[in-house]
Amino acid sequence: MKRLNIFIILILVIFNGAAFSYSSDPKEFVLELVSDAINKLSDKSITNEEKSKYVEEIAKENVDINALGLYTLGELRKSSNKEDINKYQKTFEKYFLKSLTSRLTDYSYSKFEVTMSEQKSSNYTIVNSKIKPEDGNPEIKIDWRIYTKNPDKPLIRDLIVEGLSLARTQKEEFASILSSNNNDINSLISKLEEFLNN
Amino acid sequence: MYLKKVIPITFSALLFLGTISSANATDECFEGVSRSVFKFNMAFDDVILEPIAKGYNKLPSPIKKGTSNFTSNISTLLSIPNNILQGNFKELGNSFGSFAINSTVGIFGFLNPAEKLGLKPLKEDVGQTLGSYGIGQGCYYVLPILGPTTIRDSIGMFADTFVDPFAYVTIREKELLSISGNNIDYYSLKGTTAVDFRSDNLTNFESLEKNSIDLYSSMKSVYLQSRENKVGNSDSDQEDWDLDK
Asked: Could you tell me if residue B162 is inside a domain?
């Protein structure tokens, strides 16, 4: 019985791990991850709640949320104390996941294609892709900034949609909130919490 | 006579731009006023533009596509003088070739055979031309109805009406190659372009609105990034991402 339990646990761990484990090659990584996401999000037999849970899990595993949080904080990440940064990071992760889920479920895509990739440095590769919306609107060009410091585990750090960086947009939005609140990190945290509670 | 008007205006504008070129585009000219104008624009969008765009989106696809091609083809005319001013002769060939093919074979621009031949001209305006000369954007503000802009782009927008052949035959009421028009033609085209753009971005706007903590700042960032890319004729973000710096 004990053996069977261990076996079942092992199977669950392996299976669960494999569910969100993609290629370590940045180009393949993006292709596999997005194709998987499109299939899941367009599956009508899955409830919206299940889709949201899926997006959250896939993002936690494959997006460098921690680095994204620090980047969007701008220069304040250097001058804030550790306790505030930790509090901010926790709130930012919740905010990011809620906003990502909302953004992804707003759109429906039918065709995804990875066109090319370019290694910018040992830490970054930019993967270029095109996505065709289901509503017949024009094709959208999306570049993925992939962090490859650990070559076995690529992580997404930014999406550049038609030349517009989502991370930079977020950073500039936060900068504006901070500048109108005397660069107080707690004001930004409160705004994020407000968004989470809405 | 026309050049007598254009040259002093251009030089005055360039002198003024020289003084603002060092200003950072993220600086606001008058944020409080801009935020109020932004609110007004959002209300205008809710009541007028968005409903029209939603209605426009329900039109049969060939009509929508044809309208989009038509407005895009006419806006290519503005790229022609700007490509000359930027000394970008490859793009000049693209713009001129695309306009000539689409206006004739493409039945007044309703079809886009030029694209099938590989001609995809980049849209250029005077704001971009000034940017290509190294003139900075100056501070940022929001205009009623017209939306986000900077000092450089506002001057560029005004100068566009002097170099754009379509504006020349419509709002300036001159004749060019026996073609002439009037104010209504000009503003109808601009209005249709706005509706076409808005209809292509219904979901994008809605998503941005829903997920922004400060929509004004998000729109500002999107506008400034888009203008930077257009000036550099690039569609990739060049932001440095070194978190250890």
From this structure: yes
> CA A91 to CA A171: how far, in whole Å?
15
Classify residue B73: in a domain, yes or no. yes
B212 touches chain A (CB under 8 A): yes
- From first to last of the 245 residues of chain B, give the pLDDT tens digit: 454 555 555 555 554 555 555 555 578 999 999 999 999 999 999 999 999 999 999 999 899 999 999 999 999 999 999 999 999 999 999 999 999 999 999 998 999 999 999 998 999 999 999 999 999 999 999 999 999 999 999 999 999 999 999 998 898 777 777 777 888 999 999 999 999 999 988 888 888 898 899 999 999 999 999 999 999 887 666 566 666 55
Q: How far off is chain B from A29, nearest CA to CA, in Å?
A: 20
- Asked whether residue B180 is assigned to any structural domain, the reply reads yes
Number of domain units in chain B: 1
Cβ–Cβ gap B237/A163 under 8 Å: yes
* Element spanning A17, H or E: helix A2-19
Tell me the pTM: 0.84
Question: In angstroms, rounded to a whole number, what is the distance separating the alpha carbons of residues B184 and B129?
Answer: 27
Interface size, chain A vs chain B, as Cβ–Cβ contacts under 8 Å: 86
Q: Which DSSP state fits B213?
A: S
Residue A33, amino acid: L
Say yes or no for a CB contact (<8 Å) between A103 and B211.
yes
Which residues of chain A are within 8 Å of residue B212 when distances are taken between CB atoms? 173
Structural domain span for residue B135:
25-229
**Distance, in angstroms, between B71 CA and closest chain A CA?**
16
* Structure-block tokens of residue B190: 């601009």
Structural domains counted in chain A: 1
Residue B235 domain flag: no
What 3-state DSSP class applies to B141? strand
Q: Which amino acid is at A94?
A: K
Domain extent at residue A123: 28-197
A169 in contact with chain B, both atoms CB, cutoff 8 A: yes
